[in-house]
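From the pipeline queue, job 12 of 40. The input is one protein chain; the requested action is below.

Action: predict structure.
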Amino acid sequence: MDFVLLIPITLFLCITYAIKAVVDARVRKQLVASNGDPALVRGILEGDETARRLASLRWGITLVALALGFGIVDLRGWQEITPGVIAVLVGALGLGNLVFFAVSRKLR
């Protein structure tokens, strides 16, 4: 893999994330400064916090499932990329998303 291509891609992703963070912070600041209904502002901010927590939960469960998939591939001793290896990894990702769905439904 050519790491020269990885640097501009990473830079683009970092700049995009920084812009998103600044825009989100500015929207929150304007929301609080608008002197709107405090219950509405609190509800919106709590909704954002819940969405962030659920996003972290989704990534955590999905990455653990993917790690288990890679563990299965390693335990089986598969060294080449075959449709079976891809099926195990994609299945692990799908299972991770289904587990997240079940957990998030119980949290609500």
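Job complete. Residues 31 and 40 are 10 Å apart (CA to CA).
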